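REVIEWER CHECKLIST
Item 1: Sequence provided? yes
Item 2: Single chain? yes
Item 3: Sequence as submitted:
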Amino acid sequence: GADVHFHVLGVRENLAVGFSTPDTATAQRLAALLPTRRTEAFAIAHAERNDFHDRIDYWSPSTPVLWTLLALHIGIYFLMWLVRRNVPGGAMGSMLGWGWNSNYDAVLRSIQLVDWGSNVGRLTLNGQWWRLVTSLFLHGSILHLAFNMIALWQVGQLVERLFGSLRFTALYMIAGVCGSVASVMWNAHVNSVGASGAIFGIVGGLFAFMRRENSGVPPTVVQDLRGSLLPFLVFNLAAGFLYPHTDNAAHIGGLVGGWLAGHLLARSLHVPPERRTA
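Item 4: Structure as written out by the authors:
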């Protein structure tokens, strides 16, 4: 009659789908368009995605470094806020990075960021090289923190499982320092903070991983990742040129540093036959 019923088997779960059409002829035309079985291209893509997830589940089933980084970034931000609250005139609103006394709070935050290790050109270039690292864990406002932590969580989950926790840690730090170096070399008067250079770097490392021969990342997954990551890079780099307070030098430096480090740190995801059968 006018009802169409069909089954979708072996994708995520087996589903029975049904709906009604205006008349029998419409139902027959729709039924004729439905495949009687999966296409060869779909079967290959589906198998490759399953193999990929099996491989990363085998090598790195969890992401302890990612969660440690998230806790560290968020914890440092709120610790700085608690310290600011004890300063005379510090407002409750300063937690957000702006507040009821925003001009005073902006000066207060700027001074505090320098004290806690921001990448200040005049200090970094005169012996305080540790600021290239400490600046990665500081953020100027809660929005700055939120955007960076969301991006880190979205990208870091996959990248840590691809590289493994130790290699991911090295990738994150190398990319972050490269971003800090690019920032201070581009603008000697910079006062820069944030994890975005390191985050761009782990994206660069992911691209490097996918380009390596025999990486164990199937072509279908490479295509999926490129389709999602390229718009992310284009949008954020373009936004960095449009908004004057964005440190695009750190983004580009981190991206390039992460891409180079990714080639050195990448491993193969292929599971040895003896371990696969075990």
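Item 5: Key structural point noted by reviewer: The two ends are 52 Å apart (CA to CA).
Item 6: Recommendation: ____
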